[in-house]
Structures are given as C-alpha cells and as structure tokens.
Amino acid sequence: MQTSYRAHGKVIIIGEHAVVYGYNAIAIPIKALHITTTITPSVAENWLATARYHGPLAQAPSEYNGLKYVITTLLGRVNAPAPIKVTYTGEIPIERGLGSSATVALGTTKALSAYLKLKLTEADTMAITNHAEMINHGKASGLDAATVHANFPVFFNRAAGPVEFKAKLGATLLIIDTGELGNTREAVALVKKQLTTHPQAPEQLARLGHLTDLTKIAWEGHDATKVGHYFNEAQAILATFHLSAPLIDQLQQVATRYQPYGFKLSGGGLGGIVLCLCQNRMQAERIATAVHPLIAHHWIEEI
C-alpha cells in the first residue's frame, strides 16, 4: 500500500511578523515549488527519507521535530500501527521563507491520514499542521499553513483565519533566493525583544499591519504602483527591526536602478528571499540578470 500528497510552497507578500501579533497579512501560493510526501510500509521501524536525512524516525535530528509530531500524533490514532516509511521528493529551499516546513507538515498530514484511513477534517488537518509549525518556529501565525493549502492569494488574520481572493494585480513578481539561510525562530525572537525595548517598535509594527490592508485595496483595484510603494515602505520598516541583511540591501540597490514598482524582503528575514514587483516579465528578467552573480535562484510569477 502507498499514498502520496503533493503540497506547494508560498511567499508572503506583505505583513510578515505583524501577522504574529494579530494584524493582517497577504501571501500567495507558488505551485512551481512543491514537495511530494509518500507513505509506504517499513520493514522493522518507522523510517524517514528526506534530502538531508535517511534513518529511523526516532533518531532524526531536532530540525525534524515538527514532522515527528505529525507522524507520532497520527500513528497514535490507530491501534498497533505497522511501521511506515515516509519519503519526500521534490525540493523547496529551506529557511528561505518559501514555506518548506509548512509544506512538508501539510503533505505528511494529508498523506498519512489517507494511508491510515483517518478521514481527518480540514480543521483537524490544519490544527496538526499549525502545531507542527509552532514546534518548528517557536511561534507561528498560521499564515504559512493556510497558504500552502490554498489555490489563490490569501488575506489572513490570525483571529478570523484565511480568506482567499482571486483578484489579479496585473504585474510581475520576481522572487529572488539570496542563497543565505534565514532563521524564522531567531527573527521572531528579535522582533519580540524590540517590541519591549524600543518605544517606536509597536507603532512601526502597527503600520506594517496597516500596509497589508492598503495593499489588498490597491491589489483589488489593479494599482501596482501603489502596491510597489507599500512594498518599499514595508521594507524600510522591516529594516528598522534589523531583519534586513547586507546582501538584501545590495540587491535592493541593484534592482532600484531598473525602476521596479517596489522591493522588499519576504518571510522572517535575516536572509532568505526578497520580492521585486515589476511592470512586466521583461523588466523582471533584466533585474534577475543584473543580480544573478549575487544570488542562488530566482523565479518569475505573473500576479
């Protein structure tokens, strides 16, 4: 017996970090980036097969604690479960803000639920996925889990939950992988600390949350110029929280020469990915060529 589930990645458009504190955020699914989880029987013990670790589930490094939680929780819902092997194929660069941990948590939950015939509800699926994200990152808003499960852009509020919207902005998004690992747990802790030690920090965080609301209005009005302006302001705010990095600042300088609508980091920061909102694919390709010597990868999405 074998079951598989393919889950896609995501990028946060705006509202990262603010969303953890109850403000809104917007994220979009990136279906070009995906990971397939496959469940098969194992000979003697539960086994994990990933790009970075092959071995017994019980001995997997701490970075797999979120997956351990998913697997042990679901296996615990059946009587005397037979050993399984969990295999992951495909790749989403890790620690880049592309939703890799949420993708594998959701994929594992879906695939293992089907394998064990648990018939989980969507609410149960998302609760398990979100708890795995809490284990992975220390504090998670639920945005990543919602977006890797979505087919359209997601307007997200922690209290109200995710709402998909289908409006097209009418622009081109250049997604740049800096090649530098971000650290969501460290970034979240950094923001938390500054909120208690810097008097202006709460106001800046509130403004970042408000920029999400303005972005949604401009997006639905197909006003890419305004969205780009909000990108730039959000980047400036995130930089005051020390979430930018020298390479990100250098990429912004290079990209700005080509006059895109806007530029900002995405996700936790401290590395990871950046977004450049462009007028069209030609502009995006020119910027990608210009920054090519500095980066690891890039993707272009019409939004």
- Please compute the radius of gyration using only Cα atoms: 19 Å
- Please give the number of β-strands: 11
Uncertain stretches of 5 or more adjacent residues = none
Under CATH, the topology of the largest domain can be stated as: Ribosomal Protein S5, domain 2
Q: Helix-strand pattern, N to C?
A: EEEEHEHHHEEEHHHHEEHE
CATH architecture of the largest domain: 2-Layer Sandwich
Mean pLDDT, nearest integer? 93
Most strands sheet: 7 strands, mixed
Overall structural class, as computed from helix and strand content, comes to alpha+beta
Verbal overview:
The chain is an alpha+beta fold. It has two domains: 3-164, Ribosomal Protein S5, domain 2 (2-Layer Sandwich); 172-302, GHMP kinase, C-terminal domain (Alpha-Beta Plaits). It is built from nine helices and eleven strands. Helix 1 runs antiparallel to helix 3 (122-137), helix 2 packs across helix 3 (122-137) and helix 6 (201-220) packs antiparallel against helix 7 (224-240). The radius of gyration is 19 Å and the shape is globular.
